[in-house]
Amino acid sequence: MTGQSDFSSAKKLSGMGLLFAPTLNHGTAFTDAERAALGLEGLLPSSVESIDRQADRVRQQLASKPDDLERYIYLNQLADTNETLFYHVVMANPAYFLPILYDPTVGYACLKFGHLYRRPRGMYVSLKHKGRIREILSHWPVKDVRVICVSTGGRILGLGDLGANGMGIPIGKLQLYTACAAVPQGALLPILLDCGTENASLLADPLYLGLRQHRPSDDVMTVFVDEFVEAVQQVFPNCCIHFEDWRGTDAVRFLARYQDRVSCFNDDIQGTGSIVVAGLLNALKIKNEKFRDQTVLFFGAGSAGLGNARMIVAAMKLEGLSDDEARRRIWMYDINGLLEPSRTDLLPEQRLYVHSHAPSKDLRQVVEDVKPTILIGVSTVGRSFTQPVIETMARAVKRPVIFALSNPTEKAECTPEQAYEWTKGQALYAAGVQFQPVMYDGKTYLPGQANNFYVYPAVGLAVYATNTRRVTDASFIVAARAIADQVTDEQRNLGLLFPLQKDVLEAEIRTAEAVATQLFDQGFARVDRPKDINAWLRGLLYRPEYAPVA
Question: Given phi > 0 = left and psi -120 to 50 = alpha, else beta, which region is 329?
Fold first, then answer.
C-alpha cells in the first residue's frame, strides 16, 4: 500500500510504470488525451470507461467468486492495482464489504497469509533492525503519516499468536479507516513488528514469511518497542500510533507505558471498550436503567476484558460512582475460573476486579451467585454461554444483556438464536460478528455487532484532522456516547444497539465531530479550531474519484 499522492506526480511516470502505480492508475478510465500524453497508447484496450462502468465489472467478478476468502483475495489484488477503484467499490456499499475485508474473513486470511502473499504492503520492522529502526522507517515514501496501525501478531482475533501472518490486521484496519470514515489513505501506514512467534506450526511452515524464532523476553521487547516508538516520533512527528492485536500482557503494559508520552491508543483495550459502552448505553435506554446500578460479569479477563472494564468504570464514574465503587460492580472469570482472593496467577490490572468469593470454575454457579445484569464474553471459547448459564441469568434479570463478542463466528460464546430462545425473547444481544436477523415467537430481532469499526475509523478521522498530541480514554467515552445517540427509539425497539452499517460513513463523521470537539476542548489539537467542525471534517474526506492528469 502506497500513499495517495498529488496527481501531478503522474507526470513523473508514464507507460507501464504508471499502470503499475496503484494510487495513480486509472486503467481503462484514462482518456484518449491522457493516453497520448502519458505513453499509454497501445497499452490499454480501446474503450474508455467511466469508474462506474469499471465498478460494474468488479462487482460482476466478485459475484462469481465461491466464497468470501476468494473475494478478499480479489479485492486486495484490486487495491494493489487500482486503489481509487477499490475504494470506489467498497465505499459504495460498506455494509456488504465489511465482513469480507475485515472480520470474520480477515482472520481466515491471516491463517494463510504466507500462502496468499502477492506483494509487499506496509512495512515490516523486525528484531533484525534493532538499532536501525529510524533508518528503516525513513524508507517509507510518504513523510506526513498521521496514523500507524502496528501489530506484533501476538493475539489475532480469537486465533492466537500468528506472528508475521498478523500483517493482514493492520492492512485491513487501515482500509476501514478510509472505507468507513473516508480518512485519506496516504496518511495511513500499516506496520508489523516481527518479534518471532510461539506458533510451532508457523515456524515449521516453509512458506511462513516472518522471523523463525521464539518471541523475546519482556526486557528485550521493551527496548525494541521503545526504539520503535521513539523512531516514529522522529520520522513521522505528526503520527498517532494505533496498537492492534498485541499479546494481552504486552497490550496492557505498553499502553500504560506510552499513553501519557505520545499520541497513541490501543484499539483492543480502548476501542473495544468504547463500542461495548455504546451498546450498553442503548441497552440501558431500553431497560430505563443506569450504568451505576448494573452488575457486570466478564467471561475472559485478558486485554479485551480489561479494556471493556476500564471503559465501563469510566461510564459509571460519570454517573457519580468512585473508581472503587465502580470496580466492585465488575466481576471477571477466565480460563482458571473466577477472579477471587486465593488466585496467585493474576496481573495487577486483573486484581482490581477481585472480590470476595469462594474459588469456582463453574460459570453457571458464578452467574447464580453474582446475579449479573450484563454478561460479556471475550473468551474466544465458542458456545461457552450454555443454556443453563443463560437461563440462570434470565431467572434473576428481566432483560439480561448478553454480549458474545469473541470472533470469528465460531468463537462467539452463544448465537443470537440461543440467547433469544433461552431468555424467551428478553435478551438484549450483541456479538463481535454480524449475525442475520432472528425470528422468535413471531417477532423479528436485530442482533447488534459490537465491532470496533464504529469507533477507530472515527477516532482516526479526528486524529488525522486535529493532528492531536494525545488520545485519552475520554476520547473513547465521547465516541461511545456519539455512537449510541445515533440509534433511534424505533431501532432500539427492534433490539438494535448500534447504528445501521449502511449509514456507517455518516455515523463515523458525527462520531469524529464529537471526538475532535473533545480534543480541541482539551487543548490537544495542533491545528486552529474551525468555526464549524462538522463542515471542516467533511472538507477533508477522501473521495474515490479519478483526478485529472493532463
Answer: alpha
Same domain, 362 and 475: no
Judge whether 102 counts as a catalytic residue: yes
Domain membership of residue 39 (yes or no) is no
Cell of 273: 471498550
Cα separation of 430 and 423, whole Å? 14
Number of domains in the chain: 3
Among residues 72, 87, 124, 173, the one annotated as catalytic is 173
Given the residues 72, 87, 102, 429, select the one marked as catalytic.
102
Specify whether 87 is catalytic.
Answer: no
**Cα 230–Cα 516–Cα 503 angle in degrees, nearest 5:** 115
> Residue 491: which domain range?
454-528
User: Could you give the CA distance from residue 314 to residue 307 in angstroms, rounded to a whole number?
Assistant: 11
pLDDT, one tens digit per residue, over 412-446 is 999 999 999 999 999 999 998 889 999 999 999 98
Tens of pLDDT, residue by residue over 231-289, are 999 999 999 999 999 987 899 899 999 999 999 999 989 999 999 999 999 999 999 99
Question: 52 exposed, middle or buried (CB, 10 Å; 0-12, 13-18, 19+)?
Answer: exposed
